[in-house]
Amino acid sequence: MIQIFKKEFNSFLNSLIAYVVIATFLSSIGLMMWVFPETSVLDYGYSEMDTLFTVGPYMLIFLVPAITMRSFAEEKKMGTLEFLLTKPLHDMDVILGKFFAGFVLVMVSIIPTIVYYYSIFLLGEPQGNVDTAGVIGSYIGLVLLGGIFCTLGILASSLSPNQIVSFIIGALLCLLFYSGFDTISTLVTSGTLALNIKQLGILYHYDSISRIDR
User: Fold this and answer.
1) Is the pLDDT of residue 77 over 70?
2) pTM
3) For residue 126, is pLDDT > 80?
4) What string of DSSP letters covers 53-76?
5) By the number of CB atoms within 10 A of the CB, which of 22, 24, 116, 167 ranks highest?
6) What CA–CA distance (Å, rounded) separates 104 from 199?
7) What is the DSSP string of 101-135?
8) 192: number of CA atoms within 13 Å, CB side?
9) Contacting residues for 120 by C-beta, under 8 A, at least 6 apart
């Protein structure tokens, strides 16, 4: 598994994928948190990071499939998947190696946002007036969400040898499992059934971990 992980992670670093994903995620979240008046912390007047934990998942819905779309699709297209499977590696080693390579890249994209927390910590009135425990829980939820999206993205990559098709399938799967069940639950009249459907989706559990009020 370690060999597959190193190979996949190095391939990310040797291409533009990793840098584009990290730059897009950080710049987009940064603009929303500090520049755009509708979501800016400076205009909102409260020392919290709800913008990151509310908008971030929707950014990951598109960025994570962009990372994972090549995992198996490229192997199929280049004809190297059969060669890979003939090596003395268990199938699970291949899958986990590719998963952790994408997951670590997602974590590398999220970690720099700690700077935003530190900035809000300093800007609080009084200084440090921020729900640190809530922020930690939200970060845990965001990281776990990134792991789920990596799993769905790798699944999508195994379904087609075309990377673009894999990306589209992956994004749709991430959107469905994140907020699709929540949307479907609004169409149900029965309160108990609606809650059961809502609990099938990720959004319900992500909000519970992140302590986000919608």
Assistant:
1) yes
2) 0.87
3) no
4) HHHHHHHHHHHHHHHHTTTTHHHH
5) 167
6) 27
7) HHHHHHHHHHGGGHHHHHHHHHHSSSTT-S-HHHH
8) 0
9) 41, 47, 48, 49, 130
The structure tokens listed for 47 are 């020392």
What are the φ/ψ torsions at residue 71 (nearest 5 degrees)? -55, -55
Q: What percent of the chain has pLDDT above 70?
A: 90
Structure-token pair, residue 176: 């469905």
Contact, 68 vs 156, CB < 8 A? Answer: yes
| SS3 state at 169 | helix
In sequence order, what are the residues at sequence separation of 6 or more whose Cβ sits closer than 8 angstroms to the Cβ of residue 49? 33, 41, 116, 117, 120, 135, 138
- Cα distance between residue 72 and residue 74, in whole Å: 5
Judged against a pLDDT cut of 70, whether residue 214 lies above it is answered with no
